[in-house]
Amino acid sequence: MPPRNVGTLAAAVSAACVALVAAGTALAAGHGSTAPRAPEALGSNWYAAAPYFMPLDNDPPDAGAVMDATGLKAFQLAFILAPNGGGCSPTWDGNSPVGSDTAVAGVISAIRAKGGDVSASVGGYNGTKLGQSCGTPEATAAAYQQVIDKYGLKALDFDLEEPEYEDSAAIHNEIGAAKILQQKNPGLYLSVTTAGTADGTGWFGKQMLNEAKSQTFTPDNFSIMPFDGGFNGAASQTAALTNFNAVLRSTFGWDEATAYAHEGISQMNGRSDTGENFTQADFQTVLDFATSHHMARFTNWSVNRDRQCTPPDNNGKTSGTCSSVPQGAYDFTKYSVKFAGATPPTAPPTTTPPSQGSCTAAAYSAGTVYVGGDTVSYNGRTWKAKWWTQGEAPSTGGSGVWQDLGAC
């Protein structure tokens, strides 16, 4: 994925808060250990539709609230990287070792407690990748196997892009590791994601495909990211997908239908890093193309961004925590649900709050979007939102979005 860590100054604080919240969530749900509960049996269509979600950065929303609002059952957790200080052991975002993790484990347990599951994405745009720091495909695979074993994963995404995919040795390690994992973990769902260009993918993307061919490795899909490259709406994206289909045919000798059955797309909802705007209508057009051509994957970056900014256009800036286009909460995530074959709720689920007694502020509603400064009444007390929120009932726990102003 392209530059994603907008607002990284607050990331460390956000990550620390998420760690405390996730650990508390796991304990409250009866999961006192750091090992996530076993996943439900999900069809591969859900892993193919799982949108990217940063559990430790970019102000992560509550995953359970997203599931309730959209019907989503799977998230693509990002990103597994090499340690920032060097080495060949897996970390989240380069600074949170997988081996000692409890924060992400708590998030996964909460998702699985609601009947969902997760995939993990390795690589991305930022940081050092394990394929760069581990010396061989075998060592790289061993590092990723730790992630699979830690979380009981049934799916993994290899996000291979610059600068790593410009390093042929690193790509040899990544593709080799993916093949080893495929053989060692029967049934593991594997996707490979790379940059998109007008002709499908660029020179380095084509070299990555040639590496996969040379190692006789075929994942469940090869996906491109047709954004941040001069794209203008859905028509330019579907044209790139058509051209990428031709690239897959020429590389692997597949016919058109077989190539589409191994082809996927990863979009960026709203405003991209380079100022392209992709709206709900664009997503619908691409979804129609993907389903009519029986494509293998439909995902986007990211759930963290799937909410409206204030103001909606974010003053013409791209954000890691909102889309910079007018939207309802989780509008774009609902397209993933449609691709998976499910029907998203027509409206967020509502709850009936307790009697407010003498409260004067409006009663809290789970279906309402609140922004910083909004006040509500709930459980006989008045609460003020510190920032954007939806679907998280006022409390002194959770994400910390609500400030308790006292009894009514």
Short description:
With 408 residues, the protein is α/β, with parallel strands linked by helices. The protein has two domains: 8-340, TIM Barrel (Alpha-Beta Barrel); 350-408, Ribbon (Seminal Fluid Protein  PDC-109 (Domain B)).
Structural class: alpha/beta
Distance linking N and C termini:
47 Å
Mean pLDDT over the full residue set: 89
Q: How many DSSP H or I helices?
A: 12
Q: How would you sum up the global shape?
A: globular
Helix content: 25-40%
If classified by CATH, what would the architecture of the largest domain be?
A: Alpha-Beta Barrel
Determine the CATH superfamily of the largest domain.
Answer: Glycosidases
Low-confidence stretches: 5-33, 350-356
Task: Please report which band the strand proportion falls in: under 5%, 5-15%, 15-25%, 25-35%, 35-45% or over 45%.
Answer: 15-25%
* Sheet with most strands: 10 strands, mixed
Just give the CATH class of the largest domain. Alpha Beta
**Helix and strand element order:** HHEHEEEHEHHEHEHEHHEEEHEHEEE
CATH topology of the largest domain: TIM Barrel
How many E strands?
A: 15
Give your account of this protein's structure.
Keywords: Hydrolase, Signal. It is a single chain. The chain has 408 residues and is an alpha/beta fold. The protein has two domains: 8-340, TIM Barrel, CATH 3.20.20.80; 350-408, Carbohydrate-binding module superfamily 5/12 (Seminal Fluid Protein  PDC-109 (Domain B)), CATH 2.10.10.20. It has twelve helices and 15 strands. It has helices spanning 11-28, 44-49, 63-70, 103-113, 130-133, 137-151, 168-184, 203-214, 233-252, 256-260, 280-292, 333-340; strands at residues 52-53, 74-81, 91-92, 96-97, 117-123, 155-159, 189-195, 221-225, 263-268, 270-271, 277-278, 297-301, 375-378, 381-385, 402-407. A hairpin with a 5-residue loop joins β10 (270-271) and β11 (277-278). α1 crosses α4 (103-113). The relative contact order is 0.12.
